[in-house]
Amino acid sequence: xxxxxxxRKKMVGSELLCVNLAVVDFLCCICFYPLSxxxxxxxxxxxxxxxxxxxxxxxxxxxxxxxxxxxxxxxIRYLKTFYNLVYAVWLDGANIRLVCCxxxxxxxxxxxxxxxxxxxxxxxxxxxxxxxxWHSYHTSFKDAFYVICSFSCFMLVPVLLIVMSQIQILxxxxxxxxxxxxxxIRTNLRHAEKRLSMMFFCIxxxxxxxxxxxxxxxxxxxxxxxxxxxxxxGFVFPALFAKSSHxxxxxxxxxxxxxxxxxxxxxxxxxxxxxARNRVGVRSAIGQEGLPGGPHPxxxxxxxxxxxxxxxxxxxxxxxxxxxxxxxxxxAHRS
Length: 335
What we know:
It is found in: Membrane. With 335 residues, the chain is mostly helical. The chain contains twelve helices and four strands; from the N terminus they run ααααααββααααααββ. Strands 1-2 form a two-stranded antiparallel sheet. Helix 2 (13-31) packs parallel to helix 6 (94-111), helix 7 packs antiparallel against helix 8 and helix 8 (188-222) runs antiparallel to helix 10. The protein is globular and about 65 Å long. The model is unreliable at 279-294 and 307-335 (pLDDT under 50).
């Protein structure tokens, strides 16, 4: 968040979604998880119904917002990858801010339904955190409707969007790089767009993997009216594993994004010059003459995230005197 503030004037629309995800992770860890940690030392939930509603409501809002943000990242990258500049221009700037605001608004509205009698927030079976009363599926029609919609519309649909978009993007990237390799073209773009795709894939995969066990346990809990069908440990470990999803996103972003590492280097050097004595620079010597036909969709995304400098660098070994055929995302078309 500090690095994003330092380079706020250089940020593009797609980076705002990553910042929004960072805000979700940071605020959730600061505002809500300490209450669960203190309750674990007390061996029981601290406070009464008010603190339980505060914890359950806040965690559900931030959980939904994080899921919507990752789904938006996946869908936007899919549109930019497959539809070239048509959506690349529209999904930028103010429209990305609108997507961020919409994710917060939808998450807040849906999470507030239990405050008005549609479901409720109760302590979880192990008593160290609070969540939606999944077993209220058996109590009334309103509670059953809220529980089913929470799983189908606000959990299953975003997860399917994330998985399908990422699979299609990786498939397209593979064919794009294979087409370049088949023609003997070596570019820094091939390496950079692989890192970009893997970064978002790891973030999406980590989020889905972390929350999948908790979702399965909660779904099973719908069909049981009491807590005796599963030991408390069966709830504790999926919940802790789900909370870990807020921790590793910054490390994934740090590992795959060179621009982020460079900004971190400048930040460390400003506070302590000795910590940043060995500089790791980001090198980009790029021009538009590498591939005919203008920039590719993946190239546009790399320029936005600072992983490419504006084009393609072709090594001398890749240059010959044969006519170069035009490469597009649909494949290699003969000139």
